[in-house]
Amino acid sequence: MTKWITPLLAVAALAAAPPKTVFENLPAHELANNKVKLQILEQGSSIASISLLDQNPQFSPLWNPAAASRAAGAKNTFGNSLGHFLCLDGFGASSAEEQLAGYPFHGEAFSQKWTVNLAAHQGPTNVLVLATHLPLAFEDVQRTYRLNDGEQVLSVETQVTSLLAFDRPLQWAEHATIGVPFLKPGVTVVDMSASRARTRPYEPGPAGLPHRLPPGKDFTWPVAPALAGKKIDLRAEPLKPNSGDHTTQLMLPGRIAFITMLNPELHLLLGYLFRPEQFPWTQNWEYYPAAGQYARGLEFSTQPFDVPRRQVVQQNTMFGAPMFRWLPARSKIESRFLMFYTRVPDGMRKVDDVRLENGAITIEDRHAHRTVQLKTSLSL
After folding, report:
1. pLDDT given at position 16
2. Least packed by Cβ within 10 Å: which of 125, 220, 312, 343?
3. CA distance 308 to 314
4. How much is the pLDDT for 79?
């Protein structure tokens, strides 16, 4: 495995182990300041929870399928796929040949154990560096989490290094997922900097949850065609859940991309900022079973749908945008995103824009004349 840290950093890593914790019986590391606390799993380096410290009880908007299943008196069928997890190098099903070779659904990264390379307080910044090796993909991955004192913004920088001597197409998704009770029918809304969109193609039939949307139809976010012949505003959760659908959205070029998830009853908002040249697509995965274990994935990614690598490469582009990133031979590529969690004022019902400028993240609901500003010294 590639050595990611110098001897000096190795000493620092040994001297400053991150606080250990447990999330749903899974070993985790805690990253916190005087504003927010995060739990990051050893397995997969997944962000299992994020909460505001001055909130009692502390509350995370991220998907916890084990807790949702217990509340519904049902079996958890999603295992350790929870919160915000990393799909690398693969997104969706493997090909038949890859499956025979043991290559897993969504790639290896979220099922691997990650080790601590560094845990330190560097000036005002809390830093946690985790790393792993992907033995089937022949890749080394390092994930650096930064959280500054007094701020509610997390920076996540990821480096992927190829150990192969030839260029290869890379599949990468940041599978951000919200769940109950933050995800509430008729209340929680999603906004993003997107326009062109498409419903996922599927074969009509009884498998899985009923669909609200027809297969393979183009539309303009957020208003999608419905099977019943009407239109559906995908920002909102359905009032009467019993459906499962999947759409993809091309993020607007020429600006920093944003996704926000807002529960106006709780006055809480979770959001992301990233560069569309790194993640051109955001997939909207809706899982609304009648039993109530709702989940909604806002998965910013290199490709429009979670399908096998061969299919992605053969199609190559959609809406004129690329569907994968190149990982050059024995080289490293990077990405970075910002994650923020905050209270919002009463009356805020939607997000028209999110900007990163002048040391702050500005979140606007122009119709309601509501604005939230979050100080951040972290950038993209």
Report:
1. 61
2. 220
3. 10
4. 82
Domain ranges in the chain? 7-349
The average pLDDT across 171-188 equals 96
Copy the structure tokens of residue 165. Answer: 């001597």
pLDDT in tens, 221-254: 999 999 988 899 999 999 999 999 999 999 999 9
Secondary structure in 3-state letters for the chain: CCCCCCHHHHHHHHHCCCCEEEECCEEEEEEECCCEEEEEECECCCEEEEEECCCCCCCCCECCHHHHHHHHCCCCCCCCCCCEEEEECCCCCCCHHHHHCCCCCCCCHHHCECEEEEEEEECCEEEEEEEEEECCCCEEEEEEEEEECCCCEEEEEEEEEECCCCCEEECEEEEEEEECCCCCCCCCEEEECEEEEEECCCCCCCCCCCCCCCCCCEEECCEEECCCCCEEECCECCCCCCEEEEEEEEECCCCCEEEEEEECCCCEEEEEEECCCCCCEEEEEEEECCCCCCEEEEEEECCCCCCCHHHHHHHCEECCEECCEEECCCCEEEEEEEEEEEECCCCCCCCCEEEEECCEEEEEECCCCEEEEEECCCCC
Distances (CA, A) of 56 to 28, 52, 179: 22, 9, 19
Residues 97-153 pLDDT 10s: 999 999 999 999 999 999 999 999 999 999 999 999 999 999 999 999 999 999 999
CATH classification code of 7-349: 2.70.98.10
More confident residue, 76 or 167: 167
264-275 burial, b for 16+ CB within 10 Å, e for fewer?
Answer: bebebbbbbbbb
> What are the pLDDT digits (tens) for 336-345?
999 999 999 9
Residue 96's pLDDT is 94
Residues of the chain with pLDDT > 70, as a percent, come to 96
CB-CB contact of 255 with 275 (8 Å):
no
pTM score, two decimals? 0.93
Taking CA atoms, 245 is separated from 118, 193, 295, in Å, by 40, 20, 11
